[in-house]
Amino acid sequence: xxxxxxxxxxxxxxxxxxxxxxxxxxxxxxxxxxxxxxxxxxxxxxxxxxxxxxxxxxxxxxxxxxxxxxxxxxxxxxxxxxxxxxxxxxxxxxxxxxxxxxxxxxxxxxxxxxxxxxxxxxxxxxxxxxxxxxxxxxxxxxxxxxxxxxxxxxxxxxxxxxxxxx
Amino acid sequence: xxxxxxxxxxxxxxxxxxxxxxxxxxxxxxxxxxxxxxxxxxxxxxxxxxxxxxxxxxxxxxxxxxxxxxxxxxxxxxxxxxxxxxxxxxxxxxxxxxxxxxxxxxxxxxxxxxxxxxxxxxxxxxxxxxxxxxxxxxxxxxxxxxxxxxxxxxxxxxxxxxxxxxxxxxxxxxxxxxxxxxxxxxxxxxxxxxxxxxxxxxxxxxxxxxxxxxxxxxxxxxxxxxxxxxxxxxxxxxxxxxxxxxxxxxxxxxxxxxxxxxxxxxxxxxxxxxxxxxxxxxxxxxxxxxxxxxxxxxxxxxxxxxxxxxxxxxxxxxxxxxxxxxxxxxxxxxxxxxxxxxxxxxxxxxxxxxxxxxxxxxxxxxxxxxxxxxxxxxxxxxxxxxxxxxxxxxxxxxxxxxxxxxxxxxxxxxxxxxxxxxxxxxxxxxxxxxxxxxxxxxxxxxxxxxxxxxxxxxxxxxxxxxxxxxxxxxxxxxxxxxxxxxxxxxxxxxxxxxxxxxxxxxxxxxxxxxxxxxxxxxxxxxxxxxxxxxxxxxxxxxxxxxxxxxxxxxxxxxxxxxxxxxxxxxxxxxxxxxxxxxxxxxxxxxxxxxxxxx
Lengths: 166, 598
Known about the structure:
heterodimer; A: 166 residues; alpha+beta; Glutaredoxin; 4-stranded mixed β-sheet; 7 helices; B: 598 residues; alpha/beta; Rossmann fold; Ubiquitin-like (UB roll); 5-stranded mixed β-sheet; globular
């Protein structure tokens, strides 16, 4: 598959993608499940992947792009190796999640959805991960950090940076 | 079947998993093995107990000893003391603030004593990944009864008689909905389950699916029989990985047991279920948008009529109910409509699950009879407000709802009283706010959410919510004008009247209800340029307390606009004209000498 996204799209991924498309080809309403699995394979959904999905399911690229951009789970940009999600659900918000979110963006010098230049971190707001008892909460990939204050943020970032140095 | 002398139930819900309950389970197993107790003690991973604040929670039967805030390092002591020597580990028991004594059983804690569990009946009791445990708790008995003893019309009549209303927000009578969908003649009908719980701060549907997935599957099959559908879809948030996994396991087990598939209970009735993952769009909680999303398209709502009961998923007659609504169905069939109708208030029957969060001591999940007052929920069950702060308001219904202020705390909670107050039941998120929360800021928070989540199909919602948000932003920045409130009211009225779907029509509610009860806060922001709660940054002043300042100069060095000046070892001062209120100085100060003032 021709790749214009500048990342490493090896053929193994293309093969996996066509297996996924094959699996769902005869399912009604297949597009969203296919995009979920495609994003799992590639980490995000660049135009080249969307084209492959459109061809595979025999629908227009416009329809695929329309769906990808409609749903927040689908991303057009690569995410960091450590994807930081800040819960901005109401329970977290009234307990100060907004300040934590600002602090994270400032500490990493990022905007929402962007990725640091070294590809390590991306920060995004999310709606309620359901750990309201631990509010305010952030998730770094699958790790949950709860009952946070603004002062905890630098330590958490450092923890992951140290991991990289090791 | 092997008999064990002790069972340890460990919460495996999302909240407790986030605080290492899975690690606790593996620690338990290794210590149990080390003490050769594996044939005497069984560890069961259950769904949510509800008291998320004190998680991770584990309960040891037959004693009923409940251990709270357990760490993996406590496990060795629990095994050696409790299981080997039979001595309860007192330091890990919950301490009930009122009784000021150690209690050994959950039922005796105020948090649980006032609850009545119907939808959550099996959560925290059974292992959701084992169908036999569900069957042992009367699981699939209702489906059996319906298929062997009742006609579809009888089922509908029973549900109508019970008075059950939709638990997802609107409160439409469930029996009537089923009846409408049962009437049209079609080659195919569908039963859908709305598990796209998008209301931020609400997690009851997730807990039901994590703790008792079979109850939803059973109820959907019953609905299928009632309306004549053979296919069901559960539309679930992709953000709920544990719930998705348990549903997949449950569907597979139900198929293996012949409780899903062809000729269930040797009847002519066949029913199959499929899972569909959402992709993070709040609007997909709206019924027509949800169906459009299952069809693989952009999840935009459709105009009604035609109603889903006639033309729903793939233009076929469809019933869509929410998770909690379904979770009530098996109990209604088993215990009878009269039993269910005896609980609750005149027009709101049964119980409602609430996710209580925010400024409250016992964050968690509670199920209460309809008509329970907000005071009981906040003070008796919720344990009151932390740090001795004052209760200001409770928000229900999420972005579609509104606030109930302190003066109305004795309101009994049911569908109709909440609507009268300008809020709504919603799916059951209940966020408590104290004196430190600014109500204008809360309204802005919900509007930001609505602007972000508006699907863009109809202009009143797409443009109108944005305009309202901009006005609120202005007000919180101290640039509000007196005419702004009137503008907000006009916009709200028109959006309510003209938006296409329920989400747009209810989007102005957070503004209208805060305006109704907290007009003084709006006025303070607009006229006095002050935020009484001290939340809106632009309206605050950062001030250095001369008594606490040691003159270390750290704040001066951190200040991005050089607004701070002073001499070493003497108190520093902030020049208010230069200050951009970023708060960097406050974060930097080691002596807590910098304060925010309204």
